[in-house]
Amino acid sequence: MKCYDVIVIGAGIAGCSSAYFLKQKGLNVLVVDRAGVATAGGSSAAGAFVSPKIGKGSSLQRLTNEAFEFAKDFYSEYFPEHFKQTGVVRMPKDEEDAQKFFEYEQYNSSTHKWLEEKSLKEIGIKESQKSLFFDEAGVCDAPKMCKALLEDIDYIQYNVKSLNYENKMWYIGEYEAKKLILATGYENKFFDMRYMGIKGTWGTRGDYETKLNLEVSMHKKISISANIDGIVKIGATHAKEAHACLNCGVDPLKELFAKASDMVDTSDFRPKEIFCGMRSGSKDYFPLVGSVIDVPSMLEEHPKLVRGEKLKEEAKKMDNLYVINGLGGRGFVFAPLLGKMLAENIVEGKEVDSRVNPDRLFLKWCRKSLELER
Ligand SMILES: Cc1cc2nc3c(=O)[nH]c(=O)nc-3n(C[C@H](O)[C@H](O)[C@H](O)COP(=O)(O)OP(=O)(O)OC[C@H]3O[C@@H](n4cnc5c(N)ncnc54)[C@H](O)[C@@H]3O)c2cc1C
After folding, report:
1. Which of 31, 66, 106, 267 is the most buried (most CB within 10 A)?
2. How many other C-beta atoms lie within 10 A of the C-beta of residue 272?
């Protein structure tokens, strides 16, 4: 048996960021993934744009933008070779959206400026209403970033089929650890975590070879990256709760490419590679970071929870089991801040931010979903 302080299942951006911050705090960490580092899950398909969220100042927007500020500084300082700060132009979808952009501006804490049609044309954008330009935003090379985060951290390729917890140790094959983190994306088969409401959204990305001089990245209905080393990435997640690959069809890039062609000159674009993957979101779209509630024993000990009983104490947790998930369409924005948060919780006992603590969803789930199921 090889012994670790923590085993992380899942080598997407969530698992890799968590492992990185745990290692920084001196813990001995093993990362396990059945497919490879950022090779199969959402992180392999992601365009990995790192940009702020626009809107009317919702709580989710504020959290996203705190995470954005942290992520762009973190990537630029420690992994500049895998994060290109190309800037990202946010273009309104239509006339109505263009009006909303003016309202959104007061809630933008990230540095930004307006670009008029003439300036947009100069940077290669065909036609658009006045748009917002975030110069500190950028694009990660997803697999390279994940691999760089895991430098000096043990990694094995292994399909975890079952988990064992005995004498306060987690066992996976020939490895054991005091603590276990589930960073498995949309799949959660090990424990009853229905209260988190994790669901998948299917998406596609195409990488195209081109000589187009495109120095900035952009987002309208889909995202288009700047030209980095002769490659432009086009991507979007679009099919909610679809089963993997059902929605790809014969030409998964057809629609994306048509939308991209309305935005930039794609006449010399040659398809190089297609990536498809599932990203996972939570019931309320906020991420999920922290301990996992022991659902079976809570329901047994508190059968009235389904009828709205209030808990007098904190819900009972699974021993030494943690989750980092539900990063939605912004995994590369959220992961560094949330990975740090989880490491501080595990190592220093610092409380996880209540906005991302999965406990928030438990009581409501007991009342609503269990009632419906009966
Ligand atoms: C097309 C597309 C475009 C996107 N664009 C962006 C973007 O521009 N910017 C952005 O920030 N985000 C983007 N996202 C979202 C982002 O990809 C996700 O939020 C992020 O990848 C989630 O990371 P994760 O580590 O939680 O999950 P994943 O990357 O899905 O990783 C989970 C890992 O767990 C492993 N695993 C699962 N079960 C087991 C098991 N039993 N044993 C071993 N290993 C297991 C899987 O193999 C997988 O590697 C996009 C997503 C898609 C699909």
Report:
1. 31
2. 14
